[in-house]
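INFO worker-7 received task bundle
INFO bundle size: 2
INFO processing item 0
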Amino acid sequence: MGTPYDKDVVAWAEEQVALLRAGRLSAIDIEHIAEEIEDVGKSQLRELGSRVSVLLAHLLKWRYQPERRGKSWINTIRTQRTEALYLLGEAPSLRRRFEEARWLDLVWLKARNLAETETGMDFDSFPEACPWPMTSVLEEGFLPE
């Protein structure tokens, strides 16, 4: 066998690709390949959660600190929304996460924590659950008033 998975994952991956392309299926590291494929999905989900939590935190800041609104907040909202929509376009199956209460609760918790840190406001100043439908949150131009 070539490079061990736990010694150099990049060299291992290159070797596995070469084996797959050469049709040498009996020589591939099936277990680690399966783990890597599974991790791709997890990575995409983590990125979506991160993008949406930052977006929600900035929407909270926009809603609860109107006197501090500025171009940088608009830019962050626009960027995070665009990146979230890009991820959803690349992996439409991620949309089903918006129907999972547990996932949404975690994303909202992260957003509240970030908003607390960035505003100096008390965590409990923000709603326990997201007050906006995700369709609105992802809609271009949406800003809570």
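INFO item 0 finished
INFO processing item 1
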Amino acid sequence: MTFKLEDHKILIVDDDQHILDLLKVVFEKEGFQNILKANTGAETLLKTIHENPHIILLDVMLPDIDGFTLCSKIRSDTDVPILFLTAKTTDLDKLQGFSFGGDDYITKPFNPLEVVARVKAQLRRSTQIPSPHLRKMVYDYGYFKIDPNTGRLIVDGVRIECPTQEMKLLLYFCEHPNQILSKHQIYKDVWGEFYGGDSTVMVHVRRIREKIEKDPSRPKWIKTVRGLGYIFEVTTNEDLL
């Protein structure tokens, strides 16, 4: 599938009109043609429903609702990639952003070209579709299974909605069973960037565990290896059932 910038619709949400106008100009110069803008949470929800954007840039400090809560509301309807734009820079703020369903976290002040680069990276990952002759195997672990060809996660017989980045991370673990994977290695291979850090991986692993583990506090599959990273532990067929 060819990646075409003009095919993608971007929704930029910020109560600062200067930022909205600046990013719109930069994105258009980079080849994007369909840029939507919103100043409030209410306007964002309406445009998300009626315009179906391919990606959302979301400010955290909005006049009617905070961006984290708004992200959670959006997540109840769609797994569209969401990138936070915020002046909140602490690790706790970033962890909170990822826990509410964000896919990336960009702090203000920012370089507009870096924002464009991250958007392009997210869109490339979210639009990757395997060719018919390159269809991948279905990973079936008894209690849960993943079909990478359709992006479906089934847990205990029930389909579970799984945002794009979580699905990519889960598939990465499935493709590397019984290997100790460092957080840096995971981030580089799954996100394809060197932005972010350990907290990004940690939050996404926690969210995956909440979906596939019967007891997320005592994980059976994705285990922490103290000081080294994580391991997706798969042994015999009996252990999978």
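INFO item 1 finished
INFO post-check item 1: The radius of gyration is 18 Å.
INFO post-check item 1: Residues 37 and 43 are 9 Å apart (CA to CA).
INFO worker-7 idle
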